[in-house]
Write a structure and sequence with these properties.
- With 474 residues, this protein is mostly helical.
- It has helices spanning 3-30, 37-55, 60-65, 67-74, 78-81, 88-106, 108-117, 124-138, 145-163, 170-184, 195-207, 217-242, 253-261, 268-285, 287-290, 294-305, 315-319, 323-341, 344-356, 363-380, 384-402, 407-416, 427-436, 443-470.
- Helix 9 packs antiparallel against helix 10 (170-184).
- The N and C termini lie far apart (51 Å).
Length: 474
């Protein structure tokens, strides 16, 4: 496909985005839809921004900023307009981004990965599992799925090149995919496992404060963490069965050489960040006992990481933070808050009841319907943050009308948003694919693995319902 054709498609996409978003805004602002006038305007603005996020005629952070003047002229109170940007979750996101940046700058994540992988037996199957388990372990100190994948990918790619010369061969594909899923799937272990976890927890606690318990390590692990380990093991089996290289014995020379090239002892930067990482882990893990909120510990450790003589981040490093994404996160949290505070969630609920009500008598059948509905919506509403902001408040509102424990919907969402079918649904997958420069996995190979993994999500979800019922959550 030539550049002219790509530009033409992009122009059509931009035109569709502006047309659909503007049409939706006009409909809800000027045509009665069954909502109070102010609520209809708010929902029209929300849909306008969501459509803009999907088609991206302008960057997501720019369309996010449009929320503020639009809501102001619609008559929304300023405190509601800035709700997401004044929330503890948004502050925690800034801290998490600084934490992830410090881990990368220090090099401690790369050293730990090599050390852990050096103890894995030299077989293809073991190393695939090794990358996934290293991702699981790194979750404790690296609160970013992308950062973990970025650390693991060069190691996986180097080993793949040693095993075979074939471009996108089974060894290269399997190893690089395990590095990607080692960052993404394993992030479900802890609430601080990724920015995605923090944002979705923020959506939940912002609009449903009764679920604050699940922001703690203990609450999250009981609900989702243990199941994430199961999902990781299933992913391992999928990869080793789909990608079978001829030579399954692997040389660990690449790992040992890279490890030997590092300084024999921890550098000053690595020592500082390791100490701060331990402090962060202790604060996060004991939050349910100390009552220190996640956002307080996040921003406290982040400030230490940027303090001269204590941390390693300079003013130049702080400028490298992904500020457009941070702004976007604030908009998502604002939408979640508005959806719950006004009558929008109830209005959507009234439309969902006829679809879901017939299966409410059976938790397993209800979970199956919600799982399928989630995956269908996720194809269109690509970003899990957006889906959480739009769908979760409505589902929890729905639960009150149909007599179902609302925790079921919250738990299912936290479980399912880690699954995807198409590459565009998973930002880390796209980033890692781009980093391989055609030498790792293809998008077709990624889609095959993601599709099979998503199919396995259905029995995992049903098993989870059984598990949640046994431990008394449902």
């Amino acid at each position: 496909m030539n550049l002219k054709c790509i530009n033409k498609i992009s122009n059509y996409k931009n035109l569709i985005g502006w047309t659909v978003s503007t049409t939706v805004l006009i409909i809800f602002c000027f045509i009665p839809v069954g909502l109070p006038e102010l609520d209809a305007r708010i929902f029209g603005i929300i849909l306008f921004v969501v459509v803009m996020w999907i088609f991206e005629p302008i960057p997501p952070f720019a369309s996010t900023l449009l929320i503020m003047p639009f809501m102001y002229f619609a008559g929304v109170p300023v405190t509601d307009i800035l709700g997401g940007f004044s929330s503890p979750t948004w502050v925690a996101v800034i801290g998490i981004f600084m934490f992830g940046l410090a881990i990368q700058v220090s090099g401690i994540g790369h050293r730990l990965s090599l050390l852990l992988l050096s103890h894995i037996s030299a077989t293809y199957s073991s190393l695939i599992l090794g990358f996934l388990l290293v991702g699981l372990i790194l979750t404790f100190i690296i609160p970013s799925s992308v950062a973990k994948s970025v650390i693991l990918l060069p190691i996986a790619l180097s080993i793949g090149k040693e095993m075979e010369k074939q471009k996108n061969g089974p060894a290269k594909a399997g190893l690089t995919l395990s590095a990607m899923f080692g960052g993404w799937t394993t992030a479900g272990l802890l609430p601080t496992g990724s920015v995605a976890n923090i944002i979705i927890l923020g959506v939940i606690t912002r609009s449903m404060p009764q679920y604050n318990h699940y922001t703690s390590y203990t609450g999250w692990f009981i609900l989702i963490g243990a199941i994430s380990i199961l999902a990781t093991l299933i992913t391992w089996q999928i990869i080793i069965h789909m990608f079978k290289p001829r030579n399954k014995v692997i040389s660990k020379d690449v790992i040992l050489k890279e490890l030997k090239a590092l300084p024999p002892t921890l550098t000053e930067k690595e020592k500082r960040i390791l100490i701060l990482a331990v402090i962060a882990i202790l604060l996060w893990a004991t939050s349910s006992w100390t009552k220190i909120p996640l956002w307080v510990s996040c921003i406290f450790v982040a400030s230490l990481m940027a303090s001269p003589g204590i941390g390693i981040l300079s003013s130049a490093d702080i400028k490298k933070l992904d500020w457009p994404t941070i702004i976007w996160m604030g908009g998502i949290l604002t939408i979640a808050s508005l959806m719950s505070k006004y009558a929008i969630a109830k209005w959507i609920t009234d439309m969902l009841i006829p679809i879901i009500y017939p299966v409410t008598g059976n938790l397993y059948l209800l979970s199956l319907v919600v799982t399928v509905l989630f995956f269908l919506l996720a194809i269109v509403i690509v970003n899990p943050y957006i889906l959480a902001a739009v769908l979760l408040p409505s589902l929890v509102s729905l639960s009150n009308n149909i007599g179902v424990n609302p925790t079921l919907f919250v738990a299912l969402f936290l479980l399912l948003f880690r699954y995807f079918i198409f590459p565009y649904q998973c930002q880390p997958a796209v980033i890692v694919y781009g980093m391989t420069k055609g030498e790792g996995f293809t998008l077709k190979q990624l889609t095959k693995v993601a599709l099979v993994q998503t199919i396995t999500a259905i029995p995992v979800a049903l098993f989870s319902v059984f598990y949640w019922s046994i431990i008394g959550i449902l």
